[in-house]
Specification:
Elements lengths: L1 E5 L4 H12 L6 E5 L8 E4 L2 E4 L3 H6 L4 E4 L3 H13 L3 E4 L15 H4 L9 E3 L3 H17 L1 E10 L6 H12 L29 H13 L6 E8 L6 E9 L5 H9 L4 E3 L11 H4 L5 E8 L6 E8 L3 H17 L4
Helix pairs in contact: 1-10, 5-7, 5-10
The protein binds NADP nicotinamide-adenine-dinucleotide phosphate.
Length: about 325
């Protein structure tokens, strides 16, 4: 496979290269792509050096697959150009996620919707992916009515500039700000931009994307997204009301049998998911599983995953693997 990685110099792009190599993805030719500022820059993949090229050059090389993580505007403009050249694009930005003509895919849940005609495929938002990984098996078993989620998101979810802001603050150095306020020793109830309804764009992604992925609009999601000073790994406090009652032991069993989900739940040993534990792992970790004692059929849990891996790079590459395994590219 001739594989273009668009945004290869960014946070997600770098992890993409790492995950491609780790999983031995069948790359016969790698095309690292970034902005004009980075053209000619060297990146290393499997001990070989490659020169970064611009988007125009990359399209003309007609890759089989292009893995995009270079922001929404780049995707909106360039994904169709790659698709026209015959490339299948898997896009990490929010550009195509809610487009009714594009599939929004978490491979463990709905990869079977993909066909050869899908030339631009959307990867969900990082906080959505870890949420639906835990919700999907529970929805099948007990049917969700309403989900209330509060996120505790790391600065790597914003990109290179935000990681630098946190590092500068820790080192006591003045530098460029990615956020309107300091992030060290702080919590910002503000992920992405505010919308007219008072929610942020991130919160609305969490409200809408799960319905599309689970192909069900009968449940609702209400979200509050908060940025905290962790370098990597997003955490979520999740309250789910079901139509049907559940047994806590069955919930734990169901989640532990779900591919890609790991249950870490033992209060006797202080065992629960944490960003430092999820770091550099592909699984979604679930713990603090308990009944909401204030109303019937309602569950509380805590979900953590590495936002750059399952939340971005790994999920994208799993989609690409599915396309290859099923001869859809
Ligand atoms: N961080 C996460 O947890 C996460 C999770 C899921 C999805 N995403 C999405 O993935 C995308 C990238 O995020 P990131 O965190 O990796 O950001 P980042 O660290 O800021 O990297 C951005 C990448 O995009 C490239 N780029 C920027 N403008 C470009 C242009 N006009 N043409 C070509 N390449 C361009 C940059 O190249 P230069 O180095 O040349 O500037 C760089 O390689 C965003 O759409 C984001 O929403 C991020």
């Amino acid at each position: 496979m001739k594989v273009a990685v668009v945004g290869a110099t960014g946070m997600v792009g770098e992890v993409m290269l790492k995950v491609l190599a780790e999983r031995n993805f069948p790359v016969t030719e790698l095309i690292p792509v970034a902005s004009e500022r980075s053209v000619g820059k060297k990146i290393t993949y499997k001990e070989h050096d490659y020169s970064v090229v611009g988007l125009e050059t990359a399209v003309s090389m007609r890759p089989d697959i292009a893995l995009f993580s270079a922001g929404g505007e780049t995707s909106l403009e360039w994904a169709p150009k790659f698709a026209e050249a015959g490339t299948t694009v898997v896009d990490n930005s929010s550009a195509w996620r809610m487009d009714p003509s594009k599939k929004l895919v978490v491979p463990e849940i709905n990869a079977n919707e993909l066909t050869k005609d899908d030339k631009i495929i959307a990867n969900p938002n990082c906080s959505t992916i870890q949420l639906v990984m835990a919700l999907a098996p529970l929805h099948d078993a007990y049917k969700m009515k309403r989900v209330v989620v509060s996120t505790y998101q790391s600065v790597s979810g914003t990109g290179v500039k935000a990681v630098r802001q946190l590092e500068n603050e820790i080192a006591g150095v003045d530098g460029e700000m990615a956020y309107p306020y300091p992030i060290g020793r702080n919590a910002l109830p503000h992920c992405d931009v505010f919308q007219d309804n008072g929610y942020t764009k991130e919160e609305m992604k969490l409200a809408k994307e799960p319905q599309k992925i689970l192909n069900d609009r009968t449940f609702s999601v209400s979200a509050t997204a908060v940025r905290i000073p962790t370098a990597g790994g997003h955490s979520e406090s999740v309250n789910v009301e079901f139509e049907n009652d559940f047994d806590l032991a069955d919930v734990r069993k169901l989640l532990s049998q779900t591919p890609g989900v790991v249950v870490q739940d033992n209060t006797d040993t202080n065992t629960y998911p944490m960003p430092i534990y999820a770091h550099d792992k592909d699984e979604v970790f679930v713990g603090r599983i308990r009944r909401d004692e204030t109303q019937p059929n309602t569950l509380n849990m805590w979900i953590v995953a590495d936002n750059l891996r399952k939340g971005a790079a790994t999920n994208t590459i799993q989609i690409a693997e599915y396309l290859i395994e099923n001869e859809l590219v």
